């Protein structure tokens, strides 16, 4: 039976990427060893590591004055590392809240220093992207933090906010490599790889080098960005196999046409499902407001809980996996990351239309 994987992360990987990993699993480059067995100081692994860094820079057009790191701990570790490094005693930070992950980032920052809410769409049940105002003359503000895509509520910044005098830090865990980045407006990006860029276990961090002049020097070395930048992300043993898989995924993205092509596909896949919602006469009720809809996560409810339960039961039995909404909000969620084929989204569209005809 065909499995249609719409998991929110770890997410689907392209079949060709998995096939190559399988072929190289037990004998990488005739070394007689798998990638998981290679020393991270070996020439074979260093080749993987630095090629992956170069692919990130190439695909996202990262300027030369930014450093790229491949780290462990997921985006959740970055929630704490960012304020530990940049939220010094004389500074404060500001967070724009658009969902649960931005709330968690703020919560960690508050444990470390002076962090506050700039704006929030919580009052709108996180159905929309918050409005914001530029910060023109607050020299005590160390950074502004946003989450570019909100997996739980299905909202996304169509374009990232711009601030005149404050560095912008962006959690792009769920839409990196699915949209272009304007680096003139962004100073720090981080993203767990397990949605659009590979398996769980590696986190991409991209930061403007100038930021390192303003970091806290009194934190453990392992938690200092300066430490990792100086060692090209090889200060300690990196998640070698996850980085290898990330590299394969980035090669696939490049071969398929790059980030602009991923962005085009993301919009097309999302529109297929939003069209079903919009034409369903209220049978399917999308959570996000139209102007804030995500291309990555399509979230919706059905008119009655019993019908929603039946929907999820039947669709699971037909080979569609990962469609349950987040445990905190319920409902239905289809995650359309880079590795999800267009044919699978078309199959989901057809299934939803058939289900509606049967139960409307």
The quaternary structure here is single chain
Report the count of strand segments. Answer: 14
Rounded radius of gyration (Å): 21 Å
Estimate percent helicity.
25-40%
Major sheet characteristics: 7 strands, mixed
The strand order across the widest sheet is 2-10-9-8-5-3-4
Distance between the termini: 28 Å
Q: Regions with pLDDT < 50 over 5+ consecutive residues?
A: none
> How many H/I helical runs?
9
> What is the 3D form?
globular
Helix/strand-derived category reads: alpha/beta
Average pLDDT value?
Answer: 95
Structural overview:
- By secondary structure, the protein is an alpha/beta fold.
- The protein contains nine helices and 14 strands.
- It has helices at 15-24, 43-60, 74-86, 100-112, 225-230, 240-256, 259-278, 305-317, 342-359; strands at residues 4-5, 66-71, 92-97, 114-120, 141-147, 149-150, 155-156, 168-171, 188-192, 203-208, 284-286, 297-302, 320-321, 332-335.
- It has a seven-stranded mixed β-sheet, sandwiched between helices. A three-stranded antiparallel β-sheet has the order 11-12-14. A two-stranded parallel ribbon has the order 1-13.
- Helix 1 packs across helix 6.
- The mean pLDDT is 95.
Q: Layout of helices and strands, plus pairs?
A:
Elements: E1 4-5, H1 15-24, H2 43-60, E2 66-71, H3 74-86, E3 92-97, H4 100-112, E4 114-120, E5 141-147, E6 149-150, E7 155-156, E8 168-171, E9 188-192, E10 203-208, H5 225-230, H6 240-256, H7 259-278, E11 284-286, E12 297-302, H8 305-317, E13 320-321, E14 332-335, H9 342-359
Parallel strand pairs: 1-13, 3-4, 3-5, 5-8, 8-9
Antiparallel strand pairs: 2-10, 6-7, 9-10, 11-12, 12-14
Helix pairs in contact: 1-6, 2-6, 3-4, 7-9
